[in-house]
Amino acid sequence: MHPRAGSLATKTSPSRDGFSITELVAAMVSASFLLISVGLLLYYSSKGWQRSLQVVDLRRDANATLSLLAHQIRMTTYTNITVSSNTLTITPASVQASGNNLNYMPTAGTGQIALVRGNLATFVAGLTNGMVTIHLRLTNGSDAAEVYAAYKCRN
């Protein structure tokens, strides 16, 4: 009997462990593309989020300013309100636009309160038939919040 007669003889090819250089380069390029895409997505998402927060801040400042003015206007009579080019006087205080700032100045006492600092684009007040109209526009360069309001004075 032949020594190999009872055994199963197989030919084996050389072992091929691991990846070829082409496969490694293709995997690295694919992974790099994926990481860059995720990074860009995160970057632009955070930029959009920051911009949204800036718009929310502008709107909040505009609404807070108008809320204060509305309270003052509703608590006084028509005869105690005067309007000039950049000043709304609601006795006993006045609101004055100065450059990019909007200041609240009580006539009793000293000092002033900055209602808007550095973001004022437009402040226009009007007085007609017991109604005070206000147009307020705040901007930070790229975003803006614009509010129009009309308030009735006390009789």
Main-sheet strand order equals 1-2-3-4-5
How many distinct domains? Answer: 1
Mean pLDDT: 86
What are the low-pLDDT stretches, counting only 5+ consecutive residues below 50?
A: none
User: Span from first to last CA?
Assistant: 127 Å
Strand content: 25-35%
The number of helical segments is 1
Give the overall form.
Answer: rod-shaped
| Secondary-structure element pattern, one letter each | HEEEEEEEE
Number of strands: 8
Largest sheet: 5 strands, antiparallel
Helix content: 25-40%
Radius of gyration: 35 Å
Helix/strand-derived category reads: alpha+beta
Task: Describe this entry's structure for a reader.
By secondary structure, the protein is α+β, with helices and mostly antiparallel strands. The protein has one domain. It has one helix at residues 21-74; strands at 81-83, 87-90, 93-98, 101-106, 113-116, 120-128, 131-139, 144-152. Strand 1 (81-83) and strand 2 (87-90) form a beta hairpin. The strands form 2 sheets. Strands 1-2-3-4-5 form a 5-stranded antiparallel beta sheet, covered by helices on one side. It has a 3-stranded antiparallel beta sheet with strand order 6-7-8, covered by helices on one side. The longest helix has 54 residues, at 21-74. It contains 1 helix and 8 strands; from the N terminus they run αββββββββ.
